[in-house]
Specification:
The complex is a heterodimer of chains A (409) and B (227). Chain A has 409 residues and is of the alpha+beta class. Chain A has helices spanning 2-7, 11-36, 41-58, 75-79, 84-118, 120-125, 140-234, 242-270, 273-278, 280-290, 308-329, 363-374, 402-408, and strands at 131-132, 135-136, 294-300, 333-340, 343-350, 378-382, 389-396. In chain B, strands 2-1-3-4-5-6 form a six-stranded parallel sheet, sandwiched between helices. Chains A and B meet through helix 7, helix 8, helix 9, helix 10 and strand 3 of A and helix 1, helix 4 and helix 5 of B.
C-alpha cells in the first residue's frame, strides 16, 4: 500500500524523502562496490537493510531495527550466519540497489536536464544556446518555451524520487514485515514445543516413578519380608552360632529397610504418587501435614481440571516454598492458598524474616520459575525484609499461545 | 484365622503367604487385583465363609491407582465390620483417612509394607485388626498428629497423654504401651482413662479405644471439611 506513505506525507517529510533519495543515489556506487567485494557482501547487505530500516522509520514507517535492544556488539556477525540474511536483508538490498539506480538516473538526467531547460533564457542571454536534440534555444521565444518544459521535467523528477522513496518503504515493510511474522510464528512454535517438552518430561518422570514402584521397590519389600522371616526364625535357633546368625539377620533386615526408605524418598522426589492418585489438593494437604510448620491450607475450585504437568510444577513450588520458609523465615506457621478457576493460582505466605530472592535462594525457586514459565505461567516472589515472604505462582490450565501457534502454523 | 490375601506383586504375595501360613493362619483366598478381591470375598460370603480378615495392597490393577483401598472400602460397606488390613508401599495420610473415615465399627489397619518384615509386630497388628481394633502405621500417625493449635478437645491432652494415644493408634495394648514408655500398668491405665475423659468418651461407650483413635485421626483431618 504505497498510498499510506503518501497519505502521511507532510512537506517536511517530502523534503526529507527527496534528500534521502539523493543521498541513496550518491551512496549507490559504494553499495555496488560493497556487493562486488564478495566477502563484504553479507555485511553490505546487513548495513543496507539496517540503513533502509532507519530511513523508513524516519519517514514514519513502523519498522524495527535489526540491531537488538540489548546491544550485543557482534549482532551483525551473528546475523550474517542466519537465513534471515537471505530471506529479508538480501531482497531489501536488491530493492535498494534498483531504486538507487532509478533515483540516480532520475536525479542526473531529470534534475540536471530540467534545471538546464528552466535556465534556458538565462543561457540565451549569455549567448549560450541550450540544445536538446533538434530543439535549440537560439531565440528568446524558443528559450522561454523551454522553461515550462523544464519545470515539468523537474516536477516529474521529484515525482520519480518520491515514488522511489515510497517504494523503498514498501520494500522494507513487506520484506521486513514477513520477517516479523515469521519470527512470531517461530516464537509461537518454540513456546508450544517447550510446553510439550515439559509435558513429556513430566510423563517421563511419572513413568520412572511407576517403574521404580513396580520394580525395585516391590523387590526390596519382598527382600525385607524374607529377611524379617529369617530374623524371626533365627530367634528360635538353638546352638552356639545362633546369636551370630541373629545379629547378621537383623543387620541385613535393617539395611534392606534403610534402602527402602531412601528409595521411597527418591521416588517421591521424582514424582509424588499422591498427585496422580488423589489429585493436587490432596497432595498439597499431604505436603502441609508433612511440613514442620503449622500450615493453613485453603483450596477452592476443581483440581481435576489441572493438567498433570501443571499440577507437578505447582506441587514442587509449594514444597520448595515451605522448605524455604522452614529453613530461612524463622516462623512457625505458613499459609497456602490454591485456587482453580480459568487458571491455577497458588500463594504461599509467611510472616517471617523476608529478604528472599529468586537468584540468591539457590537454584530451587529460580529453576521452578523456568518450569512455570515454560507452561505459560509466572512465579513472583515478594519478600520485604522483616515483613514476610509471599510466593505466587499463576499458571494457565492450557498454554495461552496454543491458539496463536495454531494460527501461525 | 482365615485370611484373604490380595497383592499384585508375585514375590511379596508369596512372602506374605509363607509368613502367614508359618504363623499358623489359613490363607483362604488369594487375589492379584482389586476385581478378584471383590469377587473372591463375595463368593466366600455366599458360601457362608467370610474371611476373618482381608489383607490387601493399596495400589493394584486394574487402574494401578488406589484400587485395593477402594475395593476394601466397598467390601466394608457390604459387610460391615469386616476386618481389613491395608498395606501400602508409601506413606499417605489421605489413604489412611479414606479407610478410617468409614471405620466407626473398627477392624481396620493401615501399615507400610515393610512393617511385614517385623514379623512379630505384624502378626500382632493382624490380631488387633481381626479383633475389631484400629492399627495405623507409626509413620503415618506421625504425619497425622503434629500438634495443631486448633485441636479442640485434643488440645486438652497433656504431651504424655498424646503419646499414649499415639501408641493406642498403633494398636498397642496397655501393657505394651507401659513397656514402651517405661510406665507401670497403673500409670498407663490412668493416662488412658484421662484420654477417654478428656475426649468425652464415657465408660458406657462401646469400643472406647477405637473411638478415641478415630476421633483423634478425624480431628487432624481438617482438609476434607474445608474442601
Amino acid at each position: 500500500m504505497p498510498l499510506t506513505g503518501l497519505r502521511i506525507a507532510r512537506p517536511r517529510r517530502l523534503a526529507l524523502r527527496v534528500v534521502f533519495e539523493l543521498a541513496a543515489a550518491a551512496v549507490w556506487p559504494l553499495q555496488v562496490v560493497g556487493i562486488m567485494l564478495l566477502p563484504l557482501a553479507p555485511f553490505t547487505a546487513i548495513a543496507t537493510a539496517e540503513v533502509e530500516r532507519w530511513r523508513a522509520r524516519a519517514c514514519g514507517e513502523d519498522v524495527a531495527p535489526l540491531h537488538p535492544a540489548d546491544g550485543a556488539p557482534a549482532w551483525a556477525w551473528h546475523r550474517a550466519a542466519t537465513r534471515a540474511l537471505w530471506r529479508t536483508d538480501a531482497p531489501i538490498t536488491l530493492a535498494s540497489l534498483v531504486l538507487g539506480a532509478v533515483s540516480g538516473l532520475a536525479a542526473v538526467l531529470g534534475g540536471l536536464g530540467g534545471a538546464v531547460l528552466v535556465a534556458a533564457p538565462v543561457f540565451h542571454a549569455t549567448k549560450v544556446y541550450v540544445n536538446v536534440g533538434p530543439w535549440v534555444g537560439d531565440t528568446a521565444a524558443r528559450a522561454w518555451t523551454m522553461v515550462p518544459v523544464g519545470i515539468t521535467v523537474l516536477a516529474g523528477t521529484l515525482a520519480v524520487l518520491l515514488g522511489a522513496s515510497v517504494a523503498r518503504d514498501a520494500a522494507v515493510r513487506v520484506l521486513g514485515g514477513q520477517e516479523a511474522q515469521r519470527l512470531s510464528r517461530e516464537l509461537g512454535s518454540v513456546r508450544t514445543s517447550r510446553a510439550a517438552m515439559l509435558e513429556a518430561f513430566d510423563a517421563e518422570r511419572r513413568r520412572i516413578e511407576r517403574d521404580l514402584h513396580d520394580g525395585a521397590q516391590q523387590d526390596l519389600v519382598a527382600l525385607s519380608i524374607t529377611l524379617g522371616m529369617l530374623e524371626h526364625t533365627a530367634a528360635s535357633l538353638p546352638g552356639a552360632e545362633a546369636g551370630r546368625v541373629q545379629t547378621l539377620a537383623r543387620r541385613a533386615h535393617e539395611q534392606a529397610e534403610r534402602s527402602l526408605v531412601r528409595l521411597r524418598e527418591t521416588v517421591h522426589g521424582i514424582h509424588p504418587r499422591e498427585l496422580t492418585d488423589l489429585g493436587l489438593f490432596a497432595a498439597l494437604r499431604q505436603l502441609a501435614d508433612r511440613s514442620p510448620l503449622q500450615v493453613d491450607l485453603r483450596a477452592s475450585g476443581d483440581d481435576a481440571s489441572v493438567p498433570p504437568a501443571v499440577a507437578a510444577a505447582v506441587y514442587f513450588v509449594v514444597a520448595e516454598a515451605l522448605t524455604n520458609a522452614t529453613v530461612h523465615a524463622g516462623v512457625e506457621r505458613a499459609e497456602v492458598g490454591a485456587e482453580v478457576g480459568d487458571g491455577l493460582r497458588v500463594v504461599v505466605r509467611d510472616t517471617g524474616r523476608g529478604g528472599a530472592r529468586l537468584d540468591s535462594s539457590g537454584t530451587g525457586l529460580a529453576g521452578l520459575r523456568e518450569r512455570v514459565r515454560a507452561l505459560g505461567g509466572e512465579l513472583a516472589v515478594d519478600s520485604p525484609a522483616d515483613v514476610g515472604t509471599t510466593i505466587t505462582a499463576t499458571v494457565p490450565l492450557s498454554p495461552t499461545w496454543d491458539d496463536e501457534a495454531m494460527m501461525g502454523a | 484365622m482365615r485370611i484373604f490375601l490380595t497383592e499384585d506383586a508375585a514375590l511379596i504375595r508369596a512372602g506374605l503367604q509363607e509368613l502367614l501360613e508359618s504363623a499358623g493362619h489359613e490363607v483362604g483366598g488369594v487375589a492379584t487385583d482389586a476385581v478378584e478381591l471383590v469377587t473372591g470375598v463375595e463368593e466366600a460370603a455366599r458360601a457362608g465363609a467370610l474371611p476373618d480378615i482381608v489383607v490387601t495392597d493399596v495400589r493394584m490393577p486394574p487402574n494401578n491407582s488406589d484400587d485395593g483401598l477402594r475395593a476394601a472400602v466397598r467390601l466394608r460397606e457390604r459387610h460391615p465390620g469386616l476386618p481389613v488390613l491395608v498395606l501400602s508401599a508409601y506413606v499417605s495420610g489421605p489413604y489412611a483417612r479414606t479407610l478410617l473415615d468409614d471405620s466407626a465399627s473398627g477392624g481396620v489397619g493401615y501399615l507400610l509394607k515393610e512393617r511385614v518384615g517385623h514379623v512379630a509386630d505384624f502378626l500382632s497388628s493382624l490380631e488387633v485388626v481381626a479383633g475389631g481394633g484400629v492399627v495405623v502405621d507409626p509413620e503415618v500417625v506421625a504425619h497425622l498428629t503434629a500438634p495443631r493449635s486448633d485441636d479442640g478437645p485434643l488440645a486438652r491432652l497433656t504431651p504424655r497423654e498424646r503419646e499414649v494415644l499415639q501408641l493406642m493408634a498403633a494398636g498397642l495394648s496397655n501393657s505394651q504401651i507401659g513397656e514402651k514408655l517405661f510406665l507401670s500398668q497403673a500409670a498407663v491405665g490412668k493416662h488412658v482413662a484421662n484420654v477417654f475423659a478428656k475426649l468425652d468418651l464415657p465408660p458406657s461407650e462401646e469400643n472406647r479405644r477405637v473411638r478415641a483413635v478415630l476421633l483423634w485421626l478425624r480431628h487432624n483431618d481438617r482438609f476434607r471439611s474445608r474442601r
